[in-house]
UniProtKB/TrEMBL annotation:
It comes from Sutcliffiella cohnii. It is an enzyme of class 2 (transferase). The lineage of its organism: Bacteria, Bacillati, Bacillota, Bacilli, Bacillales. PROSITE patterns: PGLYCERATE_KINASE. (2R)-3-phosphoglycerate binds at R36, R118, R151. This is Phosphoglycerate kinase.
């Protein structure tokens, strides 16, 4: 990576404003999946051990510039305290005189968690006044929030212009190294598996990856637009009529670029979107008109597994079916199992639902890298620059 990281600077005695992505699922005031908190710990430990006064800032949810009681960061700070095994102070605001006093009271190695930065309207507007307020708290800015790096907000981008030193954290560095290497110097054969709900959300990713991969596997709800593009009826399956021509152009681009293009050959159709629906497996040219395809079929899964086993590198974004319902989870599970069993395959899971799926199947520890970024990893894979990274100091 061509950006400086915390390993390139001296933080001893410095007030370090560290933006993390503590946007974790909350249930009844308790943290659900704590992956993102754990992922930030190496950076926090590094700062603590090197004598920084650590000020942590994050968003939680989408409170839209207002205080939302359920989205306060205190429960997250409590969980962090347990995981770190040291006291973590909490602020009721994210800037201002009271917060400054709390920062002034920090000793080297102390940790303070600020309130949800999205309680302020200026955050998402990247308001420079708010960015300056954040900057007043700090001597050094660290961005470790890879999951929010695609957002140009006051705490992810704006602040970097008002603090003399702006560097990446260790999580940010690792995410960019893994994804960056995959896209620029991939081990081959290189396979991308793209699933999820809509073609619309994956246009940029598919287009960019078609210039880089050896194999492209399409699954999930978006496959039906490709099935339609091949001239088959898709019944009540998810279909984006206005993207059929685009799907055709992707298949043509694959041919032109010598990319092996795989899409389902069979699908699991259902007469209802529920676990108790009547289901059957049909070839893609026999989808009944009043049924919908909610998963890949077993023949497709077998083909995908074979491609995975013969790959050196696989990037996976988006489930193969409606994996949240057990009846339609087999296609996604089969991809996860193939990745888990392929010892020689480096597997990169692109965050969001695919990360949730490998967790659900208890296979997370068998993946080589699970990104903490959903939208951020998607934008990175589209080849877009991430504003939260661009703003950091060059090496
Ligand atoms: N055949 C299908 N029909 C309808 N929905 C489907 C189908 N296959 C998968 N899905 C749904 O797609 C959703 C995931 O789509 P999405 O595009 O958000 O995936 P993602 O890329 O993993 O998301 P993220 O942006 O969070 O990483 C899941 O909730 C899943 O149930
Ligand atoms: O969950 C995420 O993908 C990040 O925390 C970014 O959240 P956002 O989509 O609300 O900006």
């Amino acid at each position: 990576m061509n950006k400086k990281s915390i390993r390139d600077i001296d933080v001893k005695g410095k007030r370090v404003f560290c933006r993390v992505d503590f946007n974790v699922p909350m249930k009844d005031g308790v943290v659900g999946d704590e992956t993102r908190i754990r992922a930030a710990i190496p950076t926090i430990q590094h700062l603590v051990e090197n004598g920084a006064k650590v000020i942590l800032a994050s968003h939680l949810g989408r409170p839209k510039g207002e205080v939302v009681e359920e989205l306060r960061l205190a429960p997250v700070a409590r969980r962090l305290q347990e995981l770190l095994g040291r006291d973590v102070a909490v602020a009721n605001e994210a800037y201002g005189e009271a917060v400054k006093a709390q920062v002034d009271a920090l000793a080297e190695g102390d940790v303070l968690v600020l309130e949800n930065v999205r309680f302020y309207p200026g955050e998402e507007k990247n308001d420079s006044e708010l960015a300056k307020q954040f900057a007043e708290l700090a001597d050094v800015y660290v961005n470790d929030a890879f999951g929010a790096a695609h957002r140009a907000h006051a705490s992810t981008e704006g602040i970097a212009h008002h603090v003399p030193v702006a560097v990446s954290g260790l999580l940010m560095e690792k995410e960019l190294d893994v994804l960056g290497k995959a896209l620029s110097h991939p081990d081959r054969p290189f396979t991308a598996i793209i699933g999820g709900a809509k073609v619309k959300d994956k246009i940029g990713v598919i287009d960019n990856l078609l210039d880089k991969v050896d194999n492209l596997i399409i699954g999930g709800g978006l496959a039906y637009t490709f099935i339609k593009a091949q001239g088959h009826d898709v019944g009540k399956s998810l279909l984006e009529e206005d993207k059929i021509d685009l799907a055709k152009s992707f298949m043509e681009k694959a041919k032109k670029n010598d990319v092996n293009f795989y899409m389902p050959v069979d699908v699991l159709v259902a007469d209802d979107f529920s676990n108790d629906a009547n289901t059957k497996i049909v070839p893609i040219d026999q989808i009944p008109s009043d049924w919908e395809g909610l998963d890949c079929g077993p023949k497709s899964s077998e083909i995908y597994a074979e491609v995975i086993k013969n790959s050196k590198l696989v990037i996976w974004n988006g489930p193969m079916g409606v994996f949240e319902l057990d009846t339609f989870a087999n296609g996604t599970k089969s991809v996860a199992e193939a990745l888990a069993q392929s010892q020689d395959t480096y597997s990169v899971i692109g965050g969001g639902d695919s990360a949730a799926a490998v967790e659900k199947f208890n296979l997370a520890d068998k993946m080589s890298h699970i990104s903490t970024g959903g939208g951020a990893s998607l934008e990175f894979m589209e080849g877009k620059a991430l504003p939260g990274v661009v703003a950091l100091n060059d090496k």
